[in-house]
Every structure is written in structure tokens, then in C-alpha cells.
Write a structure and sequence with these properties.
The structure holds 2 protein chains of 2 kinds. By secondary structure, chain A is of the alpha/beta class. Helix content of chain A is 62%, strand content 13%. Chain A contains 5 helices and 6 strands, in the order αβαβαβαβββα. In chain A, helix 1 runs antiparallel to helix 5 and helix 4 crosses helix 5. By secondary structure, chain B is mainly beta. The chains are: A alpha/beta, B mainly beta. At the A-B interface, helix 1, strand 6 and helix 5 of A face strand 1, strand 5 and strand 8 of B.
Chain lengths: 284, 89
């Protein structure tokens, strides 16, 4: 009885500690989410304008030939860039995007695909499963940086231009405000564009300079957006996971406290009973 | 009222300006370029220099462009896409 009581007390204490940790992690994630979400939303207008201008510019100057727009006839190899987090504890965030990327890779033929892992979770998973991991970017730890976005864009563009791969896709997680984040796979290179109405643009200084400039700015803007989108989803998933953990701990503590009180009451009753019985015996 | 057109100044991480303007002067690759309402559609590369924006009330705002960028004008809307910009002091 008294052992039960002590054991329960110990357990409650340890769960209370866990609860404190998950609660702190939840608050940290909330702060990080606020920052990255702001950056994500703020970078949307630039990207959508860039995309609109590039697409209508391309429709205007058709037929257009540029190495980054050219669909290769023979598609022997492809790269899939998978964006995950570096650490776990964010419920299904990593699983979902990894699963989507894996299905995509298996569908196009596993041996054709090179994985570019962003985040440790993707790196570890695809390495373990025996996929070819062509490149990896680890240690982002949920923090967006311009350098990383520029670096990845440059590397991917070079891979495509040197014909190391014939197509490049990005598997990332799309942030949704109702917390149902969905994994998405989008083509990064060659650039696919939808036709727009012809504008008959005046071009200054000239077609080629504008084309090159727009394409490189567009790719960078796209990479920024995709990374920020994933990071926003990551922090939001982590915050939710930690909130659930905190709530669970609270429930568990409540249940155990009830048990603890029962055990204590039982011990007291037993003691009183013993005293009463021995007093009875002495009198008799 | 003088004819005006819509201007959006977008940076990678923020929209710096959005509103109506009566005239806009930008540092294009081949020299400064003035834009008025209903300009013909144009895409221009921009170089570092001064961007001057006059709004419908005649108020003039100067931005300093420190990087390259693009100007697009179509449908009586001007869109500036710039890497970095210095605000008027």
C-alpha cells in the first residue's frame, strides 16, 4: 500500500518533468513558427509576380530556346530533392513527405533516381533503404537562410546543365493553415510554363539578357518559397505534436494523482484500523 | 484627375510599396526610363540607381536601388521586382 503510494508519487514527478519539457518545446516551436511563417507569407508576392512575368514573357518570345527550358527527349536520370527536418518529434511531418518521395522514386524506377536530401531524416532514411543519395544538406535545423537557398539552387541548376540528370523534382510539405499539411512533388527543372496571352512587350536591353536574368531570379524565388513552405509546416507540425504530448502528460498526471490519493487513503485507513484493533486487544 | 496606374514594388521577402502612381522613373539597363499611365507593355532590366515615384497627389518618393531587378508593365500595372532597396531617408 505504502509502496504503491511512493511509486505513484515518483511516476507523477517524472511525468511532470516530461510535461515541462514538451511544454517548453511547444513554446519554442510557436516562436519559430511565427518567424518563419511571416517570412513565408511575405515572400509569396515576389514569387507570384516573378512567375507571372516570366510566364508571360516566355509566351511572348516564343519559340524560345534556353537550356533550362528544354525538355530532354531521353530522360534517363532524375533527381528528387526531399525536404525534411533534421530532428524528429514532429509527428508525421517527415514520414509523409518521405513516403511521397519514395513512391515517386519507385514509380519512375529506383535506379534512375538520385536523391538530394535536405534534412537529416531524409538522408538517413534513403541511405538506409539503399537509394542513391547524390547530395545532402544537413544542419538547417528549421532556420531559413538565403545562402542555403542560393547554394541549393546553384547546385541543382549545375546538375541539370551538365546533364548529370535530365529532370529535377522537389518533394516538400505544403503548409496549410488548418494544420493538414500535405506533401507535394513539383518539377523544378526543366521549367514548365503555362501559356499566357501575348503582350507584345518592349524589351530592354534585350531578349537574352532578360531571359537569363528572369530565369535565375525565378528559380531562386521558387527555392526560397519551397524551403520556407516546408519550414513553416515543420514548425507547425512540431508545435502540434508537442501540444498533444503536453496534453497527454496532463491527463496522465490527473489519473495518477487520483490513484495516488486512493492509495494514500487506503494506507491511512489501514493504519487507523490497526490502531483501533490493537487498542481493542489491549482493553480486552 | 491625372491618369494613374498601379505600382507594386516587391522584394524577395516583402512588398515595399503598393499603390497608385502618376509617374515612375526607373534606372533601366540603357538609361533612365519614365513610365506614365497606359504605357505600352514593357519588360526592362534594372541597374543600381534611383527610383522616383510620384503618386496621384503629386507627392514624390525616392528609393535607392542597390541591386539589379526587373520592371514589368502591362494592363496599366507596373511591377518592380528587386533584390534590395534602400528607403528614402
Amino acid at each position: 500500500m505504502i509502496q504503491d503510494f511512493r511509486r505513484l508519487k515518483e511516476r507523477i514527478k517524472s511525468i511532470e518533468n516530461t510535461r515541462k519539457i514538451t511544454c517548453a518545446m511547444e513554446m519554442v516551436s510557436a516562436a519559430k513558427l511565427n518567424r518563419v511563417k511571416g517570412a513565408f507569407l511575405a515572400s509569396k508576392p515576389y514569387f507570384s509576380n516573378m512567375q507571372r512575368v516570366l510566364f508571360s514573357f516566355l509566351s511572348d518570345i516564343e519559340p524560345v530556346s534556353h537550356p533550362l527550358l528544354e525538355e530532354r527527349k531521353e530522360r534517363k536520370t532524375a533527381a528528387v530533392m526531399v525536404i525534411t527536418s533534421d530532428t524528429g518529434l514532429c509527428s508525421t511531418y517527415n514520414n509523409n513527405v518521405i513516403k511521397a518521395a519514395k513512391e515517386f522514386a519507385d514509380r519512375s524506377g529506383r535506379e534512375k533516381i538520385g536523391i538530394i536530401a535536405v534534412g537529416k531524416e531524409a538522408f538517413v532514411y534513403f541511405k538506409r533503404e539503399g537509394y542513391f543519395v547524390a547530395n545532402s544538406y544537413l544542419g538547417i535545423h528549421g532556420k531559413f537562410s538565403e545562402e542555403i537557398a542560393a547554394d541549393i539552387t546553384k547546385t541543382l541548376t549545375n546538375m541539370f546543365l551538365t546533364k548529370t540528370v535530365d529532370e529535377i523534382y522537389i518533394a516538400y510539405t505544403h503548409f496549410s493553415p488548418n494544420l493538414r499539411h500535405k506533401p507535394a512533388i513539383e518539377k523544378f527543372l526543366a521549367i514548365e510554363y503555362e501559356k499566357k496571352e501575348r503582350q507584345y512587350y518592349i524589351l530592354e536591353p534585350g531578349k537574352d539578357i532578360i531571359l537569363n536574368g528572369l530565369i535565375s531570379k525565378y528559380l531562386l524565388a521558387k527555392m526560397r518559397l519551397v524551403l520556407l513552405d516546408s519550414l513553416t509546416a515543420e514548425h507547425s507540425a512540431r508545435m502540434l505534436a508537442m501540444k498533444l504530448a503536453t496534453d497527454n502528460a496532463k491527463d496522465l498526471i490527473d489519473t495518477l494523482t487520483l490513484l495516488k490519493n486512493k492509495a494514500r487513503q487506503a494506507a491511512i485507513t489501514k493504519e487507523v484500523l490497526e490502531i483501533a484493533m490493537s487498542a481493542e486487544a489491549l482493553r480486552g | 484627375m491625372a491618369a494613374s496606374f498601379h505600382v507594386t514594388v516587391a522584394l524577395p521577402g516583402k512588398v515595399e510599396y503598393e499603390g497608385e502612381a502618376a509617374s515612375l522613373v526607373v534606372p533601366a539597363a540603357l538609361g533612365y526610363l519614365g513610365i506614365l499611365a497606359h504605357h505600352a507593355p514593357i519588360v526592362a532590366g534594372l541597374t543600381p540607381g534611383k527610383i522616383t515615384l510620384r503618386d496621384a497627389a503629386g507627392k514624390i518618393t525616392d528609393f535607392t536601388l542597390k541591386s539589379n531587378g526587373f520592371l514589368e508593365f502591362s494592363g496599366n500595372k507596373a511591377t518592380l521586382m528587386l533584390d534590395s532597396l534602400e528607403l528614402p531617408a
